[in-house]
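>> Question from a student workshop board

For tomorrow's exercise we were told to take the sequence and the ligand below, predict the bound structure, and bring the output to class. My setup keeps failing. Could a helper post the expected result so I can at least see what it should look like? The ligand is nicotinamide-adenine-dinucleotide.
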Amino acid sequence: MDLGIAGRVALVTASSRGLGYDVACRLAQEGVKLAMCARTVEVLQDAADRIRDSYQTEVQNIVCDLTDERQSTSMVDDVIGRFGAVDILVVNCGGPPSGAFMEHDDRRWRDAVDLNLMSAVYLTRAVVPQMMKRRWGRIVFMTSISVKQPIDGLILSNSVRAATVGLAKSLANELGPYGICVNSVCPGYFQTGRVQQLAEQHASKTQGRPQDLLDAWARQNALQRVGDPAEFGPLVAFLCSERAAYLTGTAIAIDGGLCRSLY
Ligand code: NAD
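>> Workshop helper replied:
Here is what the output should look like for this input. Compare the format with yours to find the bug.
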């Protein structure tokens, strides 16, 4: 299927590795002009070079800490300066630390809000005015299956990401009249650095082996395996496409059947 977005401009954040990198690859494959960001210059440069070489598309790479509003706004300005627009925004960022309620002080709660809610607020605020003028836009928030089915030991993620989905749903209503679609995607377990880190953190607390935990996570879903990051990007690319013009305000699970609820 031709997604109809060749020549559009996409900004995919935290895209030097993991799920964000796969989203960047899939959009580059569709012929978008791509802007990527991360905090570490060498890792970002390397990822941008690989995408440029593989998909022969224009790639702009910008170092940015997404918890800093000034840096996020200036990144969006730089992308508009180079490519003339941001048509597609995919908001990805790191995940907050694991732990139960009594393990987190106020600082940790505020950091989680900065990381997963305010990063989305800053970027959306920066891109929306020019999308409204052109009456076309796609915004996707990358959250977690924890917004549909809270995950034990991840209380920060369970709480703050639910706010991000509330933001996406409200934005879908506000921005729909301008042809801007806003959706959330909710990954289950994918084999990335984040999941490996969570398995190692948990194993160090329980004296277990990270691989045993990964195997247990795999057994929780219908497909009985952890996802490959390459299975994630196509969904986001579709949501960002011309073909998804009547799809807004949704929060779509991509979790191998992990979530047990009907909807
Ligand atoms: P990851 O940890 O492999 O990658 C996240 C990237 O975000 C890293 O490159 C990290 O350096 C970057 N980052 C962190 N803080 C940042 C900041 N302040 N500014 C800029 N970049 C920052 O994670 P992933 O597995 O690719 O997952 C992507 C998102 O989806 C994360 O929020 C994660 O918590 C969430 N998620 C992942 C899974 C999974 O199975 N992989 C499941 C549910 C939710």
